[in-house]
Design a protein that fits this description.
Layout (H helix, E strand, L loop, with lengths): L2 H18 L5 H33 L17 H10 L48 H4 L1 E4 L4 E6 L3 E2 L15 E2 L3 E6 L1 E10 H6 L1 H28 L5 E7 L5 H19 L5 E4 L1 H8 L21 E2 L2 E5 L7 E5 L1 H4 E14 L5 H4 L1 E14 L5 E6 L2
Parallel strand pairs: 1-12, 7-14, 8-10
Antiparallel strand pairs: 2-5, 3-4, 6-13, 8-11, 9-10, 11-14, 12-13
Helix pairs in contact: 1-2, 7-8
Amino acid sequence: MNKKEKLASLMKEAKDFAEKMDTAKAEDVQKLAEYKSNIEALQAEIKADEEKAGLLKMIGSKSADDPTEKKAARTLGDHFVEAVKSANVDKRFDVSASDFKAASDTQLSPAGAAEFATTFDRNVVTAARTPLVIRDLFGAETISGSALTYLVEGAIQGAPAVTAEGAKKPQVHFGEPTKKTVSLDKVACFIKESDEYISDYPFLASAVNGRLLYELGLVEQNKLVTDLVGTSGIQTDATSWTAASLGEDIADMILQAAMDVQTGSGFAADGVVLNPAVWYMLRVCKNASKDYYGGGFFGSQNIPNLWGIPVCVTPAVTASQIIVGAFKTCGSVVQKGGVSVQAVNTNEDDFVRNLMTIRAEERLALAVRRPAGFKLLTKAS
C-alpha cells in the first residue's frame, strides 16, 4: 500500500469513527484528534515526496521511486519490491515475485516444510487382532425370549444284552432329564464422535466404528470360552501335561481326548482349540532323525488340523488349556436378534454440543446340550 492509499484508508477510518463516536467521552475526542494528527502528518509526507520528485525531474535526475530505474535485486524482498513497482498502483492488484535466489546461498530443504513433502496414506493400519473364530465352532440358534430352558438327557440304567431263548430280558431305564436354563447376557459398548470428526475425517470414523464391532466380538469370544470351561459336566483332565512334556505327548493326549468325546457323547470331535504357544510345540516336533513332523499331518497353514480334526489356534484360550469337542452337535450359541448398532444425537447434551453417540450391543448365551461332548485338558502346575 503506497502513501496515497494509506491516506485514503486512514481518512475513511477516521470518518467512520467520527460518525459513531460519543462526544461526551473524552477518550473518543482524543482518538479523533489522533486521527487528525496522523492524517496531517501523512499529507505532509506526500506533499514533500511530490516536491522532491518535481525538483529531481527539473534537474534531470532519476527519482528513487522512478519505475524506469532498475536496480540489481540482492534479496528476495528487493526482488518483490521491484515486482510491485512495475504494477499499476492506482488500481487493486495482485503481485507475486518470480523465482529468485541469492547467488551466494545454498538452498537446503526447509525443516518446517517437511510435512508438505509427505504423502498422507488414509488407510489406518490396525493393531494385531485376535481372530474371532470361537463362535463359528458352535451351532447357532435364535430365540424370542430372554432365557432358554432345555433338557439334558438323564443317565441310562442297565443295558441291552444278548439273551438265550426263554431267558429273562434285561431292563433298561433312562433317568429323568435335567432342566437347564441359560439367560441371555448383553454385551455392549458405545463411543462418542463429533459432527466435525465424522464429516472432516470419514476414513478415521470408519476405522473407529469398525474397531468398535471388533472389540464387541472379542468380549463375546472370551465369554464363550469362559462359559464353556465353566460348564458343569464337561470332561476334564487336570494333569494332562507338564512343562517337561514334549509336543508328541500333547498330540497323543489330544487324540485320546477326541476318543473320550466320542465315547462320552456319541459324536465325533469336530474341533480342537489351543493357544498359539501350544500349536508351536506341536509344529516343532521332530522324529529320531531330527526331521520335523509335517506334511498332511498338520494340514495346511491356512487350514490347520491334527489327527484329521480342524484346529482353531487362538489366544482366547491360555497356554495351559486345550479344548477338544463336538462343538456343532453338542453346543450352540443362542442369540436374540443380531448385533444392534444405533447412533443418536439426542443423548444427554449431544445435540447442543454437536456430538453423536454410537452404541453397539447384542444378547447371547451358550447352551451346552451335551456337556460330555467336550473335554478340557489343562497343564499341571
